[in-house]
Amino acid sequence: MVTVEEGLRSQLRNIEATYGRSIDEWIGLIRESGKRRHGEIVAMLKVEYGLSHGAANRVALVALDAITPRAAAADPQLDLYPAGKQSLLPIHGRLMALVHGLGTDIEIAPKKGYLSLRRRKQFAMIKPASRHIDVGLILPGRPVTDRLESAATFNALFTHRVRLGSIGEIDDELAGWIGDAYSAAG
Fold first, then answer.
1. For residue 112, what are the contacts with CB-CB under 8 A and spacing of at least 6?
2. How far is CA 66 from CA 11, 69, 105, 133, in A?
3. Domain segments of the chain: what residues?
4. Mean pLDDT along residues 108-133
5. Mean pLDDT throughout 50-54?
6. Contact 7, 101 (CB under 8 A)
7. Highest averaged pLDDT of the listed ranges 89-103, 108-122, 140-154
């Protein structure tokens, strides 16, 4: 199983290979720009350098951490996990490592109460509940199982839902479903 750290390192290597600059070079460009707000940095990287939203988001987080270490705690994804949901953070971290391992063209858009995962179009969502994380997937034509539930009563934008109550449930089967949804959205 891939650790969060391995997933993040893989994503950074993919960004370096795709966009032709080392992470240190990106950090230098951001430092020189004088920008210190996540949203401003993401916008700059997308507009001026052509990075995808997912790549710009990750580079911005790494750069802010390198420039001012406390700024990394301002990750908008963590706003989904208030005091009562903090126990879900390890599951979220492992899930995000899996998502980042799919490619650098993923847009992660925090919404009210969930994260939207998009490529050309939305393919998944991550929504914390009180004791588990719901993963909504768009997998038309895929049969429903005990684990790969129908999303009909969960969210009409998705065909299926998987409930994750522990890190151990992030397995090859789930990775396959997320990968299939990602592929279909590209």
1. none
2. 17, 6, 23, 30
3. 4-74, 77-184
4. 91
5. 92
6. yes
7. 140-154
Secondary element (H or E) of residue 124: strand 122-128
* Per-position b or e across 36-54, b if 16+ CB within 10 A of its CB: eebeebbebbbeeeebbbb
Token pair 């997937």 in the structure block, residue: 137
Q: Tokens for 50?
A: 């052509």
- Report whether pLDDT(97) > 90: no
- For the stretch 1-51, pLDDT in tens is 556 677 778 888 999 999 999 999 999 999 899 888 888 898 999 999 999
Angle between helices 38-49 and 23-33 (to 10 degrees): 110
Residue 139, helix vs strand vs coil: coil
For 90-113, the DSSP string reads HHHHHHHHHHHTT-S--EEEEETT
- pLDDT tens digit string along 127-159? 999 899 999 999 999 999 999 999 999 999 999
- How far apart CA 154 and CA 86 sit, in angstroms, is 22
Structure tokens at 57: 């988001």
Strand ranges in the chain using DSSP code E only, listed in sequence order:
107-111, 114-118, 122-128, 133-137, 149-150, 160-164
